[in-house]
Design goal:
The complex is a heterodimer of chains A (285) and B (324). Chain A is mainly alpha-helical and 285 residues long. Chain A is built from twelve helices and no strands. Chain A starts with a helix and ends in a 7-residue tail after the last helix. Chain B has 324 residues and is mainly α. In chain B, helix 6 crosses helix 8. Classes of the chains: A mainly alpha (285), B mainly alpha (324).
Amino acid sequence: MAAGSTSMFRDFLRRLLKNRLAVAGAIVVSLLFVVAAHPPAFAPHDPSRIDVRKILEPPSAEHPLGTDELGRDVLSRMVHGARISMEVGFVATGIATVIGLFVGLIAGFYGRWVDAVLMRFVDIMLCFPSFFLILAVIAFLGPSILNIMAIIGLTSWMGAARLVRAEMLSLKERDFVAAARAQGTGDLRIIFRHVLPNALAPILVWATLGVAGSILVESSLSFLGIGVQPPTPSWGNMLTAGKDNIEFAWWLSVYPGLAILVTVLGYYLLGEGIQDAADPRLKGR
Amino acid sequence: MLRYIARRLLLTVPLVIGISLISFLVIYAAPGGPVEMATDLNPKVTAEARERLQAYYGLDQPIHVQYVQWLGRMATLDFGQSFSRDGRQVSEKIAERIPVTLSINVLSMFLIFLIAVPLGIYSAVRKDSWFDRITTVAVFTGFAVPTFWLALLLMILFGVKLGWLPISGLVSMEYESFSFAGKVWDRVSHLILPVFVSAFGGLAGLSRYMRSNMLEVIRQDYIAAARAKGLPERTVVFRHAMRNALLPFITILGLSVPGLLGGSVIFESIFAIPGLGQLFYQGVLSRDYPLIMGSLVIGAFLTLIGNLLADVGYAYADPRIRTE
């Protein structure tokens, strides 16, 4: 059994590495991890040093991506912003995945009215335009990084719940689950030992795409001024400055947005690659 | 068909109750309750507004009574008065904003449909061709582009550098002095960027979706049969395959309502368009709670209606659904 699963994993890795786009995505994500782990090592300047003599300077040797409306170095702020984005992306998706797993497992495993009630709840949550819901809750609680992580997580778990439930429904009919049950294995053990490991790949794919989605939502919120608050740098709130200076400083609008694009694209390509590698039959669909 | 619609309507009843419960709880779960919170955080709230709120929420009543009362008001679209200086009815303020948001969203759905369907079909028919590969990469990039950034870039390019298109509002300041043709162009030119930006978000997903529907349909036996009959490929693709691949698409258009509404917050605030999204955003900034709750409830019901229309439309187009 153990030998079988290692070779399956090896096959999975081999397929993943053959997919050039997925490898590109993995490289982008790894680089982001490195940068986000210790931003000061990569930032050429102090991201919060204000210099009134250097306001809105175009890109130069000293400031490769120019300076902002307070004379701060754009590249350094972007490097520090990477950390914020990664933190929000991971914590929010972590919260959503845990809730989604919990709801989906219970609904799928117990079926009947438990399933009906939980899935109606999912339907109801999906009726709220999530961006409206997020904004409404932020209006009540106030914007802070912790609130944003929690709110994005609490409003984005429904997809995971549906996915896990569907996996559950199909897995619990399989012979190996029937066999485990015939041996007298308890519910929890069946869920965690037999069903969950088999549902891991789709959950991982969902979570990878979820990180990208959360980063997009965070940057939109910060752009609107109700996400990460200045002076803490985030790609979204840097773009607000870009909008305010749209007529004089294109670099303020272009580069932070490019960072979001590349990051999100990296996660998407990686997620899609994991999906294709985990289930080659679905490739290209 | 009528029976299907009736059954489908019945299924929305628990959803309506659920939406109202959650909306009600959102405002009650917030620290301090609606009145405290409003008066604490918003110095603009006067003592009079405070009393009005106390009475409005009936805070002396037990919670289930409050919920029933609140439900009654929602049913008559009474969301209370806005906290803003004009103090107008929230329902009135929302009602005058909905047409703007709705028409931009309908236009952008139309644009999505017009581009995504041919793109998806062509990619599917020419699977793995260069065209397919390029559109696949473009679609992924499209997924990853933050719409507000796209809006900024388009504003820089067409508004600032080229000066071709206006970048804010629905009409120019000099609108009244234009000739008829000038007025028409003025309106159209103000809509081009917002409609494009709001369509962009859905474009990538829907063309991808159309492609996979089409791939699924093309593998079916009846397509093989149509080809075996010697029908020209054109007829097979557009008459036999496309029609079936479009069916699930109807549902997706309905399901994209919440995304479009959420997106309207972003593009309306960037392009200064006086729609529901902008109203909601301003409400959030000024902590205008009655307005926020009203917009949230209306947004959820618009979504519900979108889903309902999508399902009915689907059942109308595909008899298999009705008899299921």
